[in-house]
Amino acid sequence: MGKGGVVLKRVSLSIPEDVQQAPRHPDYLGLPQGTSQSKVLENLLLIGWRTVKRQRAEAQELALYAAYEKDPERIAASTSIQRMTLRSGVV
């Protein structure tokens, strides 16, 4: 059992050459020198997964902003406010 009662699974997979460098630099991942290769690769996998999830959430957020930007009601309201501001001589 891993941390928090999670069952850890072992898998065999090919590791790309640039990723094979990770165990030589555990400090890049905030781990002390001498950390086992498996622990370094485990942390690297976890960081990669978190990055993918964060990027996906950011992409969804950007899509929402883009949809909001194209919303006809929002455009009309914004244009109206801009016209009123120009007419009032504030700007």
Task: Describe what this molecule looks like in 3D.
The chain has 91 residues and is mainly α. The protein has helices at 37-69, 72-88. The longest helix is centred in the middle third of the chain and has 33 residues, at 37-69.
Determine the N-to-C terminus distance: 65 Å
Total helical segments: 2
Quaternary structure: single chain
Structural class: mainly alpha
What kind of sheet is the major sheet?
none
Uncertain residue segments: none
Question: H/E series, N to C?
Answer: HH
CA radius of gyration is 25 Å
Helix content: 40-55%
* Secondary structure: number of strands: 0
Q: Quote the average pLDDT.
A: 87
The general outline is elongated
Strand fraction equals: under 5%
Briefly say what this structure is.
This protein is an all-alpha fold and 91 residues long. 55% of the residues lie in helices and 0% in strands.
Question: Which helices and strands, and how do they pair?
Answer:
Blueprint: H1 37-69, H2 72-88
Q: Which characteristics define this entry?
A:
single chain, 91 residues, mainly alpha, 0% strand, elongated
